[in-house]
Amino acid sequence: MPRVSDLLDRFRPAGAPGPAGAAGVPADRRVAAEDELAPIFATLADVERECAALRDAALGAARERTERAAREAADLIREARDDAEVIRAETTARLRAVGAEELALLLARAEDEAGAVRARAAQRLPALVERVLAHVRIQLSVLVGDDAVPAPSGPAEAAR
Protein backbone atom coordinates (compact mmCIF):
# COMPACT_ATOMS: atom_id res chain seq x y z
CA MET A 1 0.00 0.00 0.00
CA PRO A 2 1.48 3.38 -0.92
CA ARG A 3 2.32 5.79 1.80
CA VAL A 4 0.87 9.28 1.98
CA SER A 5 4.27 10.86 1.30
CA ASP A 6 4.51 8.88 -1.94
CA LEU A 7 1.18 10.30 -3.08
CA LEU A 8 2.14 13.84 -2.14
CA ASP A 9 5.50 13.57 -3.98
CA ARG A 10 3.56 13.45 -7.26
CA PHE A 11 2.14 16.90 -6.71
CA ARG A 12 5.31 18.76 -5.75
CA PRO A 13 6.51 21.27 -8.23
CA ALA A 14 9.35 20.14 -10.43
CA GLY A 15 11.19 23.42 -10.30
CA ALA A 16 11.53 26.54 -8.25
CA PRO A 17 8.65 28.98 -8.12
CA GLY A 18 8.68 31.58 -10.74
CA PRO A 19 8.02 31.77 -14.40
CA ALA A 20 7.07 28.59 -16.07
CA GLY A 21 9.92 26.49 -17.11
CA ALA A 22 10.38 23.28 -18.88
CA ALA A 23 8.00 20.56 -17.98
CA GLY A 24 9.32 18.44 -15.16
CA VAL A 25 8.85 14.94 -13.88
CA PRO A 26 8.43 14.32 -10.23
CA ALA A 27 11.61 13.11 -8.58
CA ASP A 28 11.72 9.42 -7.63
CA ARG A 29 14.07 9.27 -4.67
CA ARG A 30 14.14 5.49 -4.51
CA VAL A 31 15.48 5.22 -8.04
CA ALA A 32 17.98 8.00 -7.33
CA ALA A 33 19.20 6.21 -4.21
CA GLU A 34 19.51 2.91 -6.08
CA ASP A 35 21.45 4.60 -8.88
CA GLU A 36 23.71 6.31 -6.37
CA LEU A 37 24.39 3.13 -4.36
CA ALA A 38 24.69 0.70 -7.30
CA PRO A 39 28.51 1.08 -7.68
CA ILE A 40 29.00 0.56 -3.93
CA PHE A 41 26.82 -2.54 -3.95
CA ALA A 42 28.69 -3.83 -7.02
CA THR A 43 31.98 -3.42 -5.13
CA LEU A 44 30.48 -5.09 -2.07
CA ALA A 45 29.29 -7.99 -4.22
CA ASP A 46 32.92 -8.80 -4.99
CA VAL A 47 33.71 -8.62 -1.26
CA GLU A 48 30.72 -10.85 -0.48
CA ARG A 49 31.90 -13.41 -3.03
CA GLU A 50 35.38 -13.28 -1.53
CA CYS A 51 33.93 -13.73 1.99
CA ALA A 52 31.83 -16.66 0.79
CA ALA A 53 34.91 -18.23 -0.79
CA LEU A 54 36.88 -17.72 2.44
CA ARG A 55 34.02 -19.19 4.49
CA ASP A 56 33.80 -22.21 2.18
CA ALA A 57 37.57 -22.71 2.35
CA ALA A 58 37.48 -22.43 6.15
CA LEU A 59 34.61 -24.95 6.35
CA GLY A 60 36.54 -27.34 4.11
CA ALA A 61 39.68 -26.96 6.23
CA ALA A 62 37.66 -27.46 9.41
CA ARG A 63 36.02 -30.58 7.95
CA GLU A 64 39.42 -31.92 6.89
CA ARG A 65 40.92 -31.25 10.34
CA THR A 66 37.93 -32.87 12.03
CA GLU A 67 38.29 -35.98 9.87
CA ARG A 68 42.05 -36.09 10.53
CA ALA A 69 41.45 -35.71 14.27
CA ALA A 70 38.87 -38.51 14.17
CA ARG A 71 41.36 -40.80 12.37
CA GLU A 72 44.11 -39.92 14.86
CA ALA A 73 41.73 -40.56 17.77
CA ALA A 74 40.76 -43.93 16.30
CA ASP A 75 44.46 -44.79 15.88
CA LEU A 76 45.19 -43.75 19.47
CA ILE A 77 42.30 -45.85 20.75
CA ARG A 78 43.47 -48.85 18.72
CA GLU A 79 47.04 -48.44 20.02
CA ALA A 80 45.76 -48.06 23.58
CA ARG A 81 43.74 -51.27 23.27
CA ASP A 82 46.77 -53.10 21.87
CA ASP A 83 48.97 -51.69 24.63
CA ALA A 84 46.35 -52.65 27.20
CA GLU A 85 46.47 -56.26 26.03
CA VAL A 86 50.27 -56.29 26.24
CA ILE A 87 50.28 -54.63 29.66
CA ARG A 88 47.56 -56.99 30.87
CA ALA A 89 49.61 -60.00 29.70
CA GLU A 90 52.79 -58.64 31.32
CA THR A 91 50.96 -57.95 34.57
CA THR A 92 49.43 -61.41 34.55
CA ALA A 93 52.83 -63.02 33.98
CA ARG A 94 54.41 -60.90 36.72
CA LEU A 95 51.63 -61.71 39.19
CA ARG A 96 51.88 -65.41 38.36
CA ALA A 97 55.62 -65.30 38.95
CA VAL A 98 55.10 -63.57 42.30
CA GLY A 99 52.41 -66.12 43.17
CA ALA A 100 54.72 -68.98 42.22
CA GLU A 101 57.47 -67.54 44.43
CA GLU A 102 55.06 -67.17 47.34
CA LEU A 103 53.80 -70.71 46.79
CA ALA A 104 57.37 -72.05 46.73
CA LEU A 105 58.07 -70.21 50.00
CA LEU A 106 54.91 -71.62 51.60
CA LEU A 107 55.76 -75.13 50.41
CA ALA A 108 59.30 -74.84 51.77
CA ARG A 109 57.97 -73.67 55.15
CA ALA A 110 55.39 -76.45 55.18
CA GLU A 111 58.06 -79.05 54.37
CA ASP A 112 60.27 -77.68 57.14
CA GLU A 113 57.39 -77.82 59.61
CA ALA A 114 56.45 -81.34 58.46
CA GLY A 115 60.09 -82.42 58.88
CA ALA A 116 60.13 -80.96 62.39
CA VAL A 117 56.88 -82.80 63.23
CA ARG A 118 58.33 -86.07 61.84
CA ALA A 119 61.52 -85.58 63.87
CA ARG A 120 59.55 -84.95 67.08
CA ALA A 121 57.31 -87.93 66.33
CA ALA A 122 60.32 -90.19 65.68
CA GLN A 123 61.88 -88.98 68.91
CA ARG A 124 58.72 -89.46 71.02
CA LEU A 125 57.44 -92.66 69.38
CA PRO A 126 59.63 -95.22 71.23
CA ALA A 127 58.68 -93.81 74.63
CA LEU A 128 55.00 -93.76 73.68
CA VAL A 129 55.17 -97.32 72.38
CA GLU A 130 56.83 -98.42 75.60
CA ARG A 131 54.14 -96.74 77.69
CA VAL A 132 51.38 -98.36 75.67
CA LEU A 133 53.02 -101.77 75.99
CA ALA A 134 53.41 -101.28 79.73
CA HIS A 135 49.72 -100.46 80.09
CA VAL A 136 48.77 -103.46 77.96
CA ARG A 137 50.97 -105.73 80.13
CA ILE A 138 49.39 -104.37 83.26
CA GLN A 139 45.90 -104.92 81.90
CA LEU A 140 46.86 -108.43 80.76
CA SER A 141 48.43 -109.31 84.08
CA VAL A 142 45.27 -108.19 85.86
CA LEU A 143 43.11 -110.25 83.54
CA VAL A 144 45.21 -113.43 83.18
CA GLY A 145 47.83 -113.17 85.87
CA ASP A 146 51.56 -112.36 85.89
CA ASP A 147 52.64 -115.85 84.81
CA ALA A 148 50.75 -115.76 81.51
CA VAL A 149 52.16 -112.38 80.38
CA PRO A 150 55.35 -112.80 78.31
CA ALA A 151 58.48 -111.04 79.44
CA PRO A 152 59.68 -107.92 77.63
CA SER A 153 61.52 -108.86 74.43
CA GLY A 154 62.64 -105.58 72.81
CA PRO A 155 65.53 -103.36 73.86
CA ALA A 156 63.09 -100.88 75.38
CA GLU A 157 61.50 -103.64 77.43
CA ALA A 158 64.82 -105.13 78.50
CA ALA A 159 65.95 -101.83 79.92
CA ARG A 160 62.86 -101.71 82.07
Walkthrough of the structure:
With 160 residues, this protein is mainly α. The protein has one domain (27-154). It has three helices and no strands. The chain has helices at residues 4-9, 29-144, 155-158. The longest helix has 116 residues, at 29-144. The radius of gyration is 60 Å and the shape is rod-shaped. The N and C termini lie far apart (145 Å). The mean pLDDT is 84.
Taking all residues together, what is the mean pLDDT?
Answer: 84
User: β content, as a range?
Assistant: under 5%
Overall body shape: rod-shaped
Secondary structure tally, helices:
3
Q: What is the number of domains? A: 1
Order of helices and strands: HHH
**Termini, distance in Å?**
145 Å
Residue stretches low in confidence (pLDDT < 50, at least 5 long) are: none
Descriptors:
about 160 residues, single chain, 3 helices, mainly alpha
List the helices and strands and how they pair.
Blueprint: H1 4-9, H2 29-144, H3 155-158
